[in-house]
Design goal:
The chain has helices at about 15, 35-40, 55-75, and strands at about 20-25, 25-30. It is α+β, with helices and mostly antiparallel strands. Strands 1-2 form a two-stranded antiparallel sheet. It is elongated, with a radius of gyration of 15 Å.
């Protein structure tokens, strides 16, 4: 390859495939539209778990920022 890339980010396709699928005052649901995402998130007997989403303080902060950004876009329409 010859490129200096972050681990598991050859094309960035999975990273770019996250979407807010449900958002209301009590719930935020995020999905990933690539078919192989679930194998990374949960792992398999042959592939180790490489969790993308979780509930770490950093991820919660990212969710808050994404939610606010999404809400602002809706308000500005």
């Amino acid at each position: 390859m010859g490129k200096n890339i972050d681990i598991l980010q050859r094309s960035g396709k999975m990273r770019k495939s996250f979407r807010v699928s449900k958002l209301d005052k009590n719930e935020l649901e995020i999905e990933n539209t690539v078919t192989y995402f679930k194998y990374h998130q949960l792992g398999t007997s042959k592939i180790p778990r490489r969790q993308m989403l979780g509930h770490s303080p950093e991820m919660i902060k990212r969710h808050e920022i994404a939610t606010m950004s999404y809400i602002l876009k809706l308000i500005q329409k």
